[in-house]
């Protein structure tokens, strides 16, 4: 794609967006009906603020969903601690709840404006951020161009590009260059990610490691944990977490294969809890008794499956076991983050489709804390072996904890990269004291 065609494509994107903007309300209404939008705060998606802007310098953070939000929370806390206001935007109701639970009133949460010029302009005119920090791979053309037009520095942190995303951008090099040149800095997770960003036209690029390693272990409700452990007693447990379609059925197959010998309790935590009704129905159709967290069902001895159908309680579910299969890896592609089970003392199993977390899995596997399974039969054998062999399970758990410790340091590296942008705001905040909300 030539630079002329790239400019033409971006211009078309802008005009098409302006044309359909008046009709987006129906799309948002449909999402709200499905529970994917907050109907009370829907105006925020059009760039209308729902709270006053505090006085003083302000950094705008954007994180797409739960994983990205959790990754940047320590970074947000560091910047807020320096006396700088933070507005955090996310795109999902679940990430909004996570932000509220883990950050409280320390920052302002807003839903991200739609990537249409009127909404983006309205948002920027109101909040007037001094710096925009984007998590991982959120590249929205209109937002990036409008920030660039206003000369607001944009930094991509914890940056990563999956194989598929990188391949798409490589087919449009001029378009990629027209967008990525607006980034003042990219702080990438790995050397591979850094080289991919450079190929697409981003400069400068530095490597920090993965911010998700520097996050605290997922929180939990101590009373709920105590009650569930009492109910489970001496039963063996394993968990299938962040599962996608097909993987819950696979977990059911594993459970039926092992239950007679082990008295097993299987914990399933779907990546999208709204699928839980269908998951329960499918498992019950196979003769399995399901208890659900949302119903506060007790884990009686005859319960086969504990369905973790809530958001933000992964810390609870993982503390109930020492063996965890991480989903979106057996049938779906891309994988999910294995760091949470590793840092919470679980031996990690995964399917082979882990392209989005390749480097993390390589480090865990190299140190002996994660093992890859090819199919459901191999998964069942792996779960059975780890439950029956305490020494191997403990060895994998210890290796995982050591690997996580070795991987830490991304937060300090990221803060060092941000210093040229943050330090002037610290001075500005001292000269113009902030009015906390």
Automatic annotation (TrEMBL):
<feature type="domain" description="3-deoxy-D-manno-octulosonic-acid transferase N-terminal">
    <location>
        <begin position="42"/>
        <end position="214"/>
    </location>
</feature>
<dbReference type="GO" id="GO:0005886">
    <property type="term" value="C:plasma membrane"/>
</dbReference>
<feature type="site" description="Transition state stabilizer">
    <location>
        <position position="136"/>
    </location>
</feature>
<dbReference type="InterPro" id="IPR038107">
    <property type="entry name" value="Glycos_transf_N_sf"/>
</dbReference>
<comment type="pathway">
    <text>Bacterial outer membrane biogenesis; LPS core biosynthesis.</text>
</comment>
<keyword id="KW-0328">Glycosyltransferase</keyword>
<keyword id="KW-0808">Transferase</keyword>
<protein>
    <recommendedName>
        <fullName>3-deoxy-D-manno-octulosonic acid transferase</fullName>
        <ecNumber>2.4.99.12</ecNumber>
    </recommendedName>
</protein>
<comment type="function">
    <text>Involved in lipopolysaccharide (LPS) biosynthesis. Catalyzes the transfer of 3-deoxy-D-manno-octulosonate (Kdo) residue(s) from CMP-Kdo to lipid IV(A), the tetraacyldisaccharide-1,4'-bisphosphate precursor of lipid A.</text>
</comment>
<feature type="active site" description="Proton acceptor">
    <location>
        <position position="68"/>
    </location>
</feature>
<keyword id="KW-1003">Cell membrane</keyword>
<dbReference type="GO" id="GO:0009245">
    <property type="term" value="P:lipid A biosynthetic process"/>
</dbReference>
<dbReference type="Pfam" id="PF04413">
    <property type="entry name" value="Glycos_transf_N"/>
</dbReference>
<dbReference type="GO" id="GO:0043842">
    <property type="term" value="F:Kdo transferase activity"/>
</dbReference>
<feature type="site" description="Transition state stabilizer">
    <location>
        <position position="212"/>
    </location>
</feature>
<dbReference type="InterPro" id="IPR039901">
    <property type="entry name" value="Kdotransferase"/>
</dbReference>
<keyword id="KW-0448">Lipopolysaccharide biosynthesis</keyword>
<comment type="similarity">
    <text>Belongs to the glycosyltransferase group 1 family.</text>
</comment>
<keyword id="KW-0472">Membrane</keyword>
<dbReference type="InterPro" id="IPR007507">
    <property type="entry name" value="Glycos_transf_N"/>
</dbReference>
<dbReference type="GO" id="GO:0009244">
    <property type="term" value="P:lipopolysaccharide core region biosynthetic process"/>
</dbReference>
